[in-house]
Design a protein that fits this description.
Arc Repressor Mutant, subunit A, 10 helices, 192 residues, 2 domains, mainly alpha, Tetracycline Repressor, domain 2, 67% helix
């Protein structure tokens, strides 16, 4: 990484840390972009140059890492492990579904889960992985990426963090959704 890229990464990190600190102190809605820029000692123009999507994007990466680990969850799964089980295990170890996070990531997770605008931005990042996940599902299941069921499964899986993340027991909710995807919709509650 060259000097310019290091400087950009440093500014981006300073903005993210300032945003998290201010959101923690004043709540998400109680903080303006100008306050974040001031706290990070940059201009508002510099803030938007680094984060054009606004304050929601300040505490998220660009989602590229998410594409990588979703695809790796399928590609690197043990032989014979179903696609859905690989995705379940991978998702259960992240975000709102695990308590095995360092304190700073736990605070960030809790802020995201409790803030509607941040949850919606997070959902946007999850859904942006649909193409990559659909390709991986198709490759691992021997189906074509144009198969509607492949695309539907990718979308359903990517909606799980939004649906289950704010539940009282997010991991139980995640497991209930994956159980449903694996078995299909029962005709009556007794069949569940």
């Amino acid at each position: 990484m060259g000097r310019r890229e290091r400087k950009k990464a440093q500014t981006r990190r300073a903005l993210s840390e300032a945003a998290l600190r201010l959101f923690g102190e004043h709540g998400y809605d109680g903080v303006t972009v100008a306050q974040i820029a001031d706290e990070a000692d940059v201009s508002i123009a510099t803030l938007f140059a680094h984060v054009p999507d606004g304050k929601e994007a300040l505490i998220f990466d660009d989602g590229a890492e998410r594409h990588v680990w979703l695809v790796a969850a399928l590609r690197d799964r043990p032989s014979g492990q179903p696609v859905l089980e690989a995705l379940r295990r991978s998702m259960a170890a992240r975000g709102p579904f695990t308590d095995d996070l360092p304190p700073e990531l736990r605070r960030k997770r809790d802020l995201i889960v409790s803030t509607p605008a941040l949850r919606e931005y997070s959902r946007k990042l999850w859904i942006a992985s649909e193409g990559a996940l659909a390709e991986a599902i198709a490759a691992e299941s021997g189906r074509d990426t144009s198969d509607m069921t492949v695309r539907a499964l990718a979308r359903y899986v990517l909606e799980i963090p939004e649906l289950a993340g704010a539940e009282p027991d997010p991991l139980a909710a995640l497991n209930a959704i994956f159980d449903l995807l694996a078995s299909g919709w029962p005709e009556s509650p007794e069949e569940a």
